[in-house]
Write a structure and sequence with these properties.
With 179 residues, the protein is an all-alpha fold. The protein has two domains: 62 residues; 113 residues, no CATH class. It is built from eight helices and no strands. The protein starts with a helix and ends with a helix.
Length: 179
Amino acid sequence: MHHGNLIHPLVEEVLANALTMVNQSAADELNQINAVTQISNQMKKEGDMKKSILQNNENDTEERGSFNDLQQARCHWIQLDKLDLQLKVIQSTIAYVIENFESMRLLWSFGKNYEKEKLYNDQRFHDYCTCFQTALKMIMEFVDEPRDMCKLIRNIGARHFFYNVYEPHTEEMLKLLIR
């Protein structure tokens, strides 16, 4: 009976801590959704305002579209896909970073022993760029839906190891732990 008196307060404390963590997680999720929704609503208001200004200007016969930054990025991304240039742009961007910012080379395993001629033949480089492209494609699919965008980004963050799009320091830490 003495053990029951010791365990009961401990169980209550653990349950209270778990409940606090669940409530905090739910509050964080709600805050993220509200923030993205607020930004989305602001962008829609700005777009509507621009649209109404264009409609009120009867002298202007030229049709103009009103895009926010995310919509422009999405259009550009779609155009790159149609031209089959998404992967090439990602590869050239990462190659540019590796070539011009020596301190950044340590972030990627394929950048540590950098040789310009060998980089594009490195399978790790191709795999990383392909995974990065896949993650960007998924994000672009959900640009118009703030709630779904939050959920997707949270899931990518929670399961980033699956997509191989992750913080490079994680890889370095793993190497140190294995030693």
